[in-house]
Amino acid sequence: MKTQILKISELKETISTAIILKESDNLPKGLFKSNELAFLKKRLKEEQEITIFRYPELIFIYKIEDENNQSFALEKARKAGARLFQILKKEKTGIIQIWNKSGEKPLLAFTEGLLLASYSFSKYKKEKDSFELKKILVLDENVKNKELKELSVITEAVFFARDLVNEPLSTLTAEKLAKEIQIAGGKAGFSVEVFEKQKIKALKMGGLLAVNRGSIDPPTFSVLEWKPEKPANKKPIILVGKGVVYDTGGLSLKPTFNSMDYMKSDMGGAAAVTAVIYALAKAEIPVHVIGLIPATDNRPGLNAFTPGDVITMFDGTTVEIKNTDAEGRLLLADALAYAKKYDPELVIDVATLTGSAVLITGDEGMAVMGNNRQYIEKLKISGEDVYERLVELPLWEEFSEPLKSSVADMNNLGTREGQTSIAGKFLEHFTEYKWIHIDIAGPAFIHEDKTYRIKGGTGSGTRLLFNFFKNLFPKK
């Protein structure tokens, strides 16, 4: 991200201005004549948003309305910031100063929306998106430089996650994903170790190897670690990200319309895990976190695994394959079993796992389930803070029944009914620690712009987890 965010002590002349306020009486008098002030005060009683063009500058006024739901009020501020970006882009205005009289949280939300809306993926276009939001100047004595820096860092991380999801398989195989993770580690200061196919075989990660059998490209298993000098947690928190860089469904081939055409996004969990560790390291959040990313594509070629196969997982569990399109849980299961070696405080996996989750949340939220009430509630609070909201689903024992197999310890599919929870129940089998599963299948990739969420990869999960860690282990 190239946009600079700086604090200023007074409004500057000849620069476009955004005004955020709660009361219309708080309008900065130096910007307006008395008759303009009277007119604007009247308008602001009826309207929440006003744009004034004073060529070559503009003035954008956003009035925060009282909301019983603070989470929704902050989201409205983010969307207002995104609308301002579209005006700035149309007018080719690359510098904006923000005068804030609304409080710290609305200012940060507004600025976040403005920044997130500035994302563009035009790498493969002949005509590039040339507009740049160069500077945001903030006039608010109460906001801290640390908060503005963190806002810049998390935006950069979200853009990185979006870039990864938007890359096609031709440029982002499992090996290339591992290389991008290594580059990110070098930039942010976290360590990366990449297991190649021979080591994955030696570890007997049967789930990852089975899914990879139809591909000409080898799998990878990346281990990311951010460990500051004095971490707040004694035992590490593990993040596991599903890294299926492209999913055809394998021999259980997906129908093509609106199902296979955007399956480059099936590594959205891996992108979010990488991006949040990048942000934690760059912002120097005092938490010891380890990321595990099993990666491959899922194709029907070569010696592809088949329905009816029985595979042996990393922990020795045998699994009957009922459907090769239920492949993500196989990769994740190996990683979840591997996570035990770290004696973790908590393990969170993030995955575009089930189409059923999309039916529950649409692209407006994520499904969550797990075995630890305390951490799930903290995640839900973070979800409301950043508006990446979570719907909790049950892990009832009855969901184990459809996973039984007559020829193996379990099968990988279960039934269509309750599928999102059944997939979670499959993963639970491989956990012996505090664990949470987040299914981001709904919001990870969208098909049209939605204010600050740009068409394509959204980076979903990145802001949620960064907020979670920041609040769990606040930097002193």
Structure report:
The protein has 476 residues and is of the alpha/beta class. The protein has 2 domains: 139 residues, Leucine Aminopeptidase, subunit E, domain 1, CATH 3.40.220.10; 316 residues, Zn peptidases (Aminopeptidase, 3-Layer(aba) Sandwich). 34% of the residues lie in helices and 21% in strands. The strands form 4 sheets. Strands 7, 8, 9, 10, 11, 14, 15, 16 and 18 form a 9-stranded mixed β-sheet that branches. Strands 1-6-5-2-4-3 form a 6-stranded mixed β-sheet. A 3-stranded mixed β-sheet has the order 12-13-17, covered by helices on one side. β3 and β4 form a beta hairpin. The longest helix has 22 residues. The mean pLDDT is 96.
Give the uncertain stretches in residue-range form: none
**Quick one: overall form?**
elongated
Determine the structural class based on helices, strands and strand pairing: alpha/beta
* CATH superfamily (homologous) name of the largest domain: Zn peptidases
Number of domains: 2
Arithmetic mean of pLDDT? 96
Radius of gyration: 24 Å
Number of strands: 20
Tell me the CATH topology of the largest domain.
Aminopeptidase
Portion in strands: 15-25%
Distance between the termini: 26 Å
- Please give the share of residues in helix: 25-40%
Q: Oligomeric state of the chains?
A: single chain
**What's the CATH class of the largest domain, please?**
Alpha Beta
Instruction: Please outline the major beta sheet.
Output: 9 strands, mixed
Number of helices, where a helix is a run of at least 4 consecutive DSSP H or I residues:
13
